[in-house]
Amino acid sequence: MALTIDCRMIEGEGCWEIKLAGEVDIASAAKFRAALTESYDSRPADVRLDASELCYIDSTGLGVIIGAYGRMQANSHSIRIENPRANVEKLLHITSLDKIFCS
Amino acid sequence: MADTLRLTVPGKPEYVRTVRLAISSLAGCAGFDVEAVEDIKVAVSEACSNIVCHGIKGQNAAYEVSCEMLDDRIVIRVVDQAGGYDTEKYREPEAGALREGGLGIFIIKALMDEVNILSEVGQGTQIQMTKYSRE
Fold first, then answer.
1. Which domain holds residue B126?
2. Which residue in chain A is spatially nearest to B45 when comparing CA positions?
3. How far is CA A38 from CA A7, A68, A93, B20, B70, in A?
4. What is the mean pLDDT of chain B?
């Protein structure tokens, strides 16, 4: 399943909502990185990743989130992963990334 | 004798999905539950991505994936001829230390029941991973 990414600025909250649908893997991670970077650079703000329709992610996709988080931290911005499916939640748990992105 | 599926895969990112779908389909047919199939799917992808990212170079480069179906387990081998690396130098990511890379092998070891990595510098690398069925 191809990856679709919908980025929008929630003006009321002053944060980005980025909705991922499909699969993030080695073939689509660059597209995800580009969308995340482009949004954030156009207007640095907190990011909410809506993962409710994200069917699959692996270390390549998690690496994109970790990389973005590193850059955002310098500006005291955060990134949150919301509504992950069970398989995605399991991966976040075993890598302990849930403590950073889901708490 | 156990049935074995063998794939020769071009070392390009777009084929990793094909491999994980083929292997996870096989695992599903073999009776693994949904969670185990997901584990196998991610582990296989990580092994393939590792090769595509770090190992294999060149237009015609390819790697091999085999999947052996035994009564109580599935054994998957992902093998490349990409020159190998010194496995002694691999360090598991420390908890709390965020790195963009290096998570792949850690994830494979967490999701599969047995994992063996054989790498010979100058030759190649084989990642062998086993998942047991729970019945």
1. 3-132
2. A58
3. 10, 11, 28, 30, 48
4. 88
